[in-house]
Amino acid sequence: MNNASLAVGSNLKRSARPPARGGYDPRAFGQTVRMHRLAQGIGLRGLAHQVRMSPEFLTQIERGQVVPEDKCVATLARKLDCPAAAPPRYRKLPIVPVSWDTEGDAAAVVVDACANSVNMTDLPVPVERIVERGLGLALAFENMRESGCWFYLPLKSFINPQSREIVIDTSLDPRRGPEVLLQYRFVLAHQIGHWHLHAQVRYELFGCHQAAYNEQEADLFASCLLMPEGRVRDEYERQRAAGAPVTVASMAQRFQVTDDAMRARLHRLGITGIA
Q1: Could you tell me which of 20, 85, 90, 273 has the fewest CB atoms within 10 Å of its CB?
Q2: 168-176 contacts at long range (C-beta below 8 A, 24 or more positions apart)
């Protein structure tokens, strides 16, 4: 390894299990670095070259296997264009609660989709058409393990605001078979939530608490979008009127979601007594 490759990498303290210091979790830091890198469409080797760091060292950072020194933190912050006050790793960011108006946010996306000639009258909710025609976003599939997007945690999807593109891991490509369709639909709805709720958010380099809550909010948004309250209640009453037992599975099949997702949605809406 040449000296240039070690210019930043030499400032890292290597350890099999880096200790958490002052509330700083190196794994959370690594995930945030990766989040910024992917959001800007920068490859692992490309970023490593720009900050004069070996790809191996950058991989260790993104996996949370090293504790970066301030010089390394500042270099990454400048290159990824995200603010980082000194010393950032000792600063705990406030936790912002999930918005409970997510139902209304999802309804607004449906209204916009209808305005863009997306037929929303039938079930299941046409999530692909909302993405491509309603929002004008592109869909792409990529093997994230091979492309370097998958390190510490399996990454299944992300959204690139600059290119207006949702990238999905090839393992969720619905053309692979019906067994991945339900997860694929939920992932798309989750990314629509990020686009609608968080596209203008610029995370601080250590904003992992906020990022975690944004993930929860995007999950809630996906549930509201795929299973709108009014449609769920109407379908429940329709199945009851038909005389057949109403089950979680029968409701989930109608909305093309997993049983677990439907069960959580029914619980949230206060619809009980369904097996």
Answers
A1: 273
A2: 168/139, 168/140, 168/141, 168/142, 169/141, 169/142, 169/143, 169/144, 169/145, 170/141, 170/142, 170/143, 170/144, 173/141
pLDDT of residue 155: 67
CA distance 11 to 9: 5
Identify any residues that bridge with 68 across adjacent strands, giving them in sequence order. Answer: 12
- For residue range 156-213, list pLDDT tens digits in order: 888 887 788 998 989 999 998 888 999 999 999 999 988 888 775 544 433 444 566 7
How far is 193 from 184, CA to CA, in rounded Å? 14
CB-based contact 65:233 (threshold 8 Å): no
Kindly report the CATH class assigned to 6-90. mainly alpha
List the structure tokens of 119: 């037929």
Average pLDDT, the chain: 74
Distances (CA, A) of 8 to 71, 107, 260: 8, 48, 46
**Strand, coil or helix: what is 21?**
strand
Q: Strand 12-14 vs strand 66-68: parallel, antiparallel, or unpaired?
A: antiparallel
CA count, 13 A, side-chain hemisphere, 255: 32
pLDDT in tens, 157-173: 888 877 889 989 899 99
Helices 26-39 and 208-226: crossing angle in degrees, nearest 10, is 60
What is the pLDDT averaged over residues 99-113? 72
Tell me the CATH number for domain 102-226.
1.10.10
**Can you name the residues that pair with 140 across neighbouring β-strands?**
167
Residue type, 32: T
Q: Is the CB of residue 91 less than 8 Å from the CB of residue 47?
A: no
